Every structure is written in C-alpha cells, then in structure tokens.
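User: Is it possible to get a 3D structure for a protein together with its bound compound? The compound here is heme C. I've pasted both below.
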Amino acid sequence: MNCHPATDRLLQGNDKHPHRPVATRDTLCVTCHTDRNFTLHEEASYRSIPGHPRWMAAPIEMAWEGKSVGEICRQIKDPDRNGGRSLSLLHEHLAHDDLVAWGWQPGAGRDPAPGSQALLGELVQAWIDTGALCP
Ligand code: HEC
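Assistant: Yes, that's possible. Here is the predicted structure of the complex:
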C-alpha cells in the first residue's frame, strides 16, 4: 500500500503514516534510498532505510491507497492503469519483479508482507486461470 500512494505525499509503516523525513513523489528517492536495504548502526527512531536499484513509488494511476479490494482488482486488470500489462505480464510483475520482492525482505525493523512472493504468484495464476473475476 505504501508503494502505491494516491497523492504526492509518500507513506510509511504498517499504519501508513506520512513519510519522514518529508519527501514527495517528485523528490529524488536516491538522495536517501540506495540500491539495497541499509541497516543503521547507530541510535535512531528506525532501524533501516529500505532500498532497491529501482526504488520508487508506483505511478499515480496505479494508486491503491484508499481503494476497496474490488476497485484495486479492476484497476490492476485495466491496461490503461496497470502500465499496459496483459494478465500474463501482470502475473510476471507480481510473481517475479524483484522490486515487488522487497515486500518480503523489507529490512531490519519492518514487517514482511504475509506469505511469500512464490505463493502470491500461485494465487494470482489461479485467479487468472479461473477468469480473473473481481468482487
Ligand atoms: C530525505 C531522505 C529521503 C528521501 C528523499 C526519500 N526517502 Fe523514503 N525513507 C527515508 C527514510 C530515512 C526512511 C525510513 C524511515 C522510517 O522507517 O521511519 C524511508 C522510508 C520509506 C518508505 C517506507 C517503507 C515502509 O516501511 O513502509 C517508503 C515506501 C519510502 N521511503 C519511499 C520513498 C520514495 C518512493 C521516495 C522517492 C520518491 C523516497 N522515499 C524518498 C528517507 C528518504
């Protein structure tokens, strides 16, 4: 959810609080985020700074923040709002993109997403195979 914000304001943490230090979509992420999770070795209010070679927020047309499961479901199937992906490319992004993989290896002091990326891939494939319907 924090990777798919609906406004220019970035979010953090399980409670989706505003990003601290203050940064917006237009701020250069690489000013602070490097190509990997960086563990701090000194006292701070957080234990690591997340990182990845392509660290960025999803484009605004792919926002999930504030949307229902049904709305997100219809959006991720819509090539106008999913980066022009077919269902098989959508599966590729969710099941194999190493930026998505960050969610399960978020670094010190952050809770990983539930399950695993492999399990997500299986679930998305089963959803596609049964018609990719939305609630
Ligand atoms: C001025 C430095 C700085 C800039 C610029 C910056 N960040 Fe951050 N970001 C941080 C720090 C430090 C943290 C960890 C803070 C914490 O956990 O309290 C963080 C954490 C995050 C998280 C939190 C992940 C979670 O645990 O929920 C996200 C998402 C994020 N940044 C996205 C971005 C994006 C996208 C950009 C560029 C558009 C960006 N940041 C630019 C310093 C920055």
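Residues 2-3, 10, 12-13, 19-21, 23, 25, 27, 29, 31-33, 45-46, 49-50, 56-57, 106, 110 surround heme C (CB under 6 Å). The chain has a mean pLDDT of 96.
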